Amino acid sequence: MSGLLPLLRKELRELLRTYRALVVAVAFVIVGLGSPLAAKLTPRLLSSLASDPTGGVELVLTREPSTNDALFQYHKNLALLPVLVILLAMGSLSSERRRGTAQLVLTKPISRRAYLLAKLIAPGALYLAGIAVAGGGCLLYTWLLFGAVDVGGFILLNLLYLLALWFYLAVTVLASAALDSAIAAGGVGLAAFALCGLLGSFDRIGRYSPGGLFNAALALVRGTDRAGLVPSLVATALLIAVCAAIADRVLEHQEL
Amino acid sequence: MTAPVIAIRDLRRRFRDVEALAGVDLQVAGPGVFGFLGVNGAGKTTTLRILAGLIHATGGEVRLFGEPVAIGQAEVRRRIGYLPQDPVFFPWLTGEETLLLVADLFGLPGAIARRRAGEWLERLGLGHAARRRVGGYSGGMLQRLGLAQALINEPELLLLDEPVSALDPVGRVEILTLLGALSSRATVFMSSHILADVERVCGEVAIIDHGRIVVRDRTDALRERFLKPEFELALAGAAAPLIALASGAPWIEQLRVIEQGEFGATLRIAVTDAALGRRELPRLIAHSQVELLRFDAAVPTLEEVFIRIVGSRGAAAEGA
Question: What pTM was computed for the model?
Answer without folding.
Answer: 0.83
